[in-house]
Each structure stands twice: as C-alpha cells, then as structure tokens.
Design a protein that fits this description.
CATH class of the largest domain: Mainly Alpha
Number of domains: 2
Low-confidence stretches: 1-17
Structural class: mainly alpha
Radius of gyration: 21 Å
Mean pLDDT: 85
Strand content: under 5%
Largest sheet: none
Number of strands: 0
Order of helices and strands: HHHHHHHHHHHHHHHHH
Distance between the termini: 20 Å
CATH architecture of the largest domain: Up-down Bundle
C-alpha cells in the first residue's frame, strides 16, 4: 500500500500500543511510530551482520579461503572503491521510484553476495562478490536516506540519533559474537559468521517489507537530472565532512597501534577504550542531538567537535612515555573527550546532510554524502598510519589541528550553501 509521507506519520502517531510499550516510548527507549520501530529493528539486525563480517573478514579469507593477506587487502580495497560509484545514480532511482523498494532490493543483493562468499574459493570470484556487495551497500545507503526522512517526520532529529545509537549497540553485540568465533578459530566458526551476515540481510529485508511504501516527492519541473552535482555548497560540505570523518578510525585503527607500540599502558586498555567509546555513544547520542535541529546549530556542533578532537588527541598523545597507570588515565580521558567530539560531529553532520538537501532529491544527496564518507574510510588508515604512528606526538597534534580548521570552516560553508541553493526548504 502506498501512502503519503504525512499520512504515514499521521496513521502511526496514535499507535502507542499497550502500557509497557507506551512507557518505553515515553522514556525514549523505542521510537514513537510503528514505521520508526521497524526501521530501527531492521537497522539493528543489519548492523549486527555487517559488524560480524567487518571484524572477521580478513581472518575468514586468509584462514578458510586460503588467500594471501596482500590479496585480501587488495580485494577489500578495490571493492570499497567500486562501491563509491553506486550511491548517486541509485539514489536518483530511489527519489524517482520510491525508496523502500530500492532499499529492499539492495538488501537482497547484499544477502546474495555474502552468501556467495561461502562457496567461492578463488581471488577473482571473491573480488566479484565483494564488489557486488559493496555496490549494493552504497546504493542501499543512498535509498535509506529518504526512508529515514520520510518516517522520521517531525521527529527526524531524534530518530536519526536513535538509529545511530542502535547501530553502535549492534556493533557491540557483533564484536562479542565474533570474539567467540575467533576464540574457537575453526572453519565452521568462520563460515557461520559469513552465513550469519548473509542471513542478517534477508532478515532485514523481511522487516523492511512490513514498512509502508513512500511515494516519490515531486521535483520542480525546471530541475535537471542531477541537481546534487550542481549544488556547490553541498559538495563543499561533503568534502569538509569527509575530512572530519577520518576521526571515526582514530579509536579503532590508530589508538590500538599507539597503545601497544608507543605507550606503557597494558594491552587490555585497547578493549577498555572500545567499551568506553561504544557505551558513551549508545547512551548519549540522542541527548547530544537535542537542540541540533537546523543548519545554524549543526554548524556550531561541527565547530565544537573539532575543538574536542584536538583536546582528546592531545591527551592520547601525552600517554607516550608516561608510566603505565598514568598512560591508562590519559588515554581514557582522551577517549572520553574524543567521543564527545564524535557525538557533536554526528549530530551536526546528520542534520546538515538532510537540511541542506531537498526532499525530492534526498537519495541523490545521501548518495553523494556516502561517497565522501566512503572515500574517507578508504584513505583513513594510510593517513592515520603516517600522522599518528610514524610521526608520533606531532602527528597527533597536526591531525587534531586539521579537525579544528574543518570545524571552524563548516559554519561558513553552511551559510554559503544556504544562500546559494536553488530550491525552497520543505518539511520532511
């Protein structure tokens, strides 16, 4: 059944269920509408599977398939690069045909690609499966943007933050499950992880099928085929946000290497920092997003995040050469401050990627944004290895200074993007 964006929200705002569900909604533990709850559940299931695969992929390909580590790195890198190409064109299809159907199709394709990895045994077949999976992942992300906007309605800011918390909680669950499999270190255990990822896409697709279909938002008659590529303000914002997004791998890539190789902190500090970061994001992301509900407040949040990053990274850098427990304390303090910056950056970035995009082209704009963050994810390990590990303390401070500059520039770019946009703002 197809319903309008407004009708979908209106039909569901009264669906508060029985007493227990109503209490959970009032406490902010679950979203208010049925569609929001279903999309959150699909996100949770999807991210558990994705998290399991991300953590175990290299081990699976080397220990089960038998590929050399160099080929594994090359294949995953090429697939990530190929995946960047799908976002904008598929986002346009989602804008024109309806986002739910496109997102559903991409989940099915991802499931098939992951299932194929259970059977392939050569590098080229693995590469094909990875490329198809990455193309579908990028395309699905572009289609998901209009879904979030459509089902979020008047609660869009809170709903986006809630989905972010759900994704982090799923990632934690995936890490625990992967830990058991890695401890077993058997072919069966690794195959089970890959199969579980494939099944997670199937389960997510089944949940998405329960969502009401959202019709395309009409575009102005005079608009061209690719408005996002002509929106210089949005392109500039995507570039700045891509640079800032490098911070996402500071704690999961650079910090473990720094702790083990350059500090006297015990190795269990790596697990402690991951736990602190995840717990803070899950608990505080919704709260950190309160009040970040327009481009002005979003620009300020981005500016604050840059300051937090340099302070957190300075504390982490100071752990080098410090006695063991002092190093642990400095690292934990740095992670807490860095996570505060992450919360602010996420709140600001989420608001801007929707507020600076017209409703009728949200898929295209989300696709371009995904290209920026995807490119940052590909480049981040090399950047962090050079700055934080090779250059040491000066590199940590230099990268932190880059984040500060990006944070200071973002409000200016946002104001410029607002002044020069060719569309009128519309409610979600």
């Amino acid at each position: 059944m197809r319903v309008s964006h407004e009708a979908a929200v209106d039909q569901e705002t009264g669906d508060l269920g029985a007493g227990p569900l109503r209490k959970l909604i009032r406490r902010g533990l679950v979203p208010q509408t049925r569609s929001q709850r279903l999309l959150a559940l699909a996100t949770f299931v999807n991210m558990i599977g994705t998290g399991v695969f991300m953590v175990s992929a290299a081990l699976y390909f080397t220990r089960v398939v038998g590929l050399p580590l160099a080929q594994v790195g090359l294949g995953m890198g090429l697939a990530a690069g190929v995946g960047l190409l799908a976002g904008v064109p598929v986002g346009r299809i989602a804008d024109q045909r309806g986002p739910r159907e496109v997102y559903l199709a991409m989940l099915v394709v991802q499931g098939a690609a992951m299932a194929a990895l259970v059977f392939v045994q050569t590098f080229w077949l693995v590469l094909v499966a990875l490329c198809v999976g990455e193309l579908a992942r990028s395309a699905g992300g572009a289609a998901r943007g209009p879904l979030v906007r459509g089902y979020g309605g008047g609660q869009l800011t809170r709903f986006r933050a809630y989905l972010r918390s759900v994704a982090n909680l799923a990632g934690s669950c995936a890490a625990v499950a992967t830990g058991f499999a890695v401890q077993a270190d058997t072919r069966t255990a690794y195959l089970a992880l890959v199969a579980a990822n494939a099944l997670s896409f199937v389960a997510s697709a089944a949940i998405v099928m329960l969502l009401p279909s959202l019709p395309p938002v009409p575009a102005p008659p005079s608009e061209g085929r690719w408005p996002v590529l002509k929106d210089r303000g949005y392109v500039a914002f995507v570039l700045l946000d891509a640079v800032m997004s490098v911070h996402h791998q500071v704690l999961i890539f650079a910090l473990p290497l720094w702790i083990v190789g350059r500090t006297d902190a015990p190795r269990w500090t790596v697990g402690l920092t991951a736990l602190v970061n995840t717990a803070l994001v899950v608990i505080l992301q919704v709260r950190a997003s309160r009040g970040v509900d327009d481009v002005t407040t979003a620009g300020r949040a981005m500016r604050r995040s840059g300051v937090a990053f340099i302070l957190g990274m300075a504390a982490i850098a100071a752990a080098a050469g410090a006695p063991g427990w002092v190093a642990v304390a400095l690292i934990v303090v740095g992670v807490v401050i860095h996570t505060v910056g992450e919360l602010w950056h996420t709140a600001g970035s989420l608001e801007l990627r929707f507020s600076l995009a017209p409703a009728h082209a949200q898929g295209q704009y989300t696709g371009l944004f995904g290209m920026g963050t995807g490119a940052a994810g590909v480049a981040a390990p090399s950047i962090l290895a050079l700055c934080c590990i090779t250059w040491g303390v000066p590199g940590w401070l230099l990268l932190g200074a880059v984040f500060v500059v990006v944070g200071l520039l973002t409000p200016r770019i946002v104001r410029w993007a607002e002044r020069n946009r060719s569309w009128s703002p519309q409610p979600a």
